[in-house]
Amino acid sequence: MKKSRYALTNAPLLLMPDWKLPFKLYIDAYGKGLGAALNKVQIVNDKPYEGPICFVSRQIKPTETRYGASQMDCLCLVLALEKLHYYLDGSVFKLITDFNAVKSLLNMKT
C-alpha cells in the first residue's frame, strides 16, 4: 500500500537519453486507449536505474473499437514508432509487450 501511495504522489524522474545504450520501448493497448513508455537503463548513484525518458498515449477512435487484440497492439506499436521516431531512428531498442502476436510478427522471416 505504501509503495502504491508513493508511486501515485511522486512524479517519475525523467532521464536524458544516452545514445550509446539501447532503449526499452514498452507498449500496451488497453480498453479505451493506447500507451507507450520509452525507458533507459542508466547508472544512478552507482546502481542501475531503469527510468522513463518519455510517455506517449492516446484514446482509441470510434472506428478502432472494432479492432481485435492483435490489431490494437500493432496499432499501439505504430503510434509509438511514429511519435518516438526522433529517439528510435538509428538506435537499438528492445520492444517489450505482453502480447505474443506482436512478438511473433517481429520474429517473422521475410
From TrEMBL:
Designated name of the protein: Reverse transcriptase RNase H-like domain-containing protein
Record-level Gene Ontology MF annotations: endonuclease activity; hydrolase activity; RNA-directed DNA polymerase activity
InterPro entries: DNA/RNA_pol_sf, Retrovirus_Pol_polyprotein, RT_RNaseH
Keywords of the record: Endonuclease, Hydrolase, Nuclease, Nucleotidyltransferase, RNA-directed DNA polymerase, Transferase
UniProt keyword Cell cycle present: no
All copies of domain Reverse transcriptase RNase H-like, residue ranges: 18-109
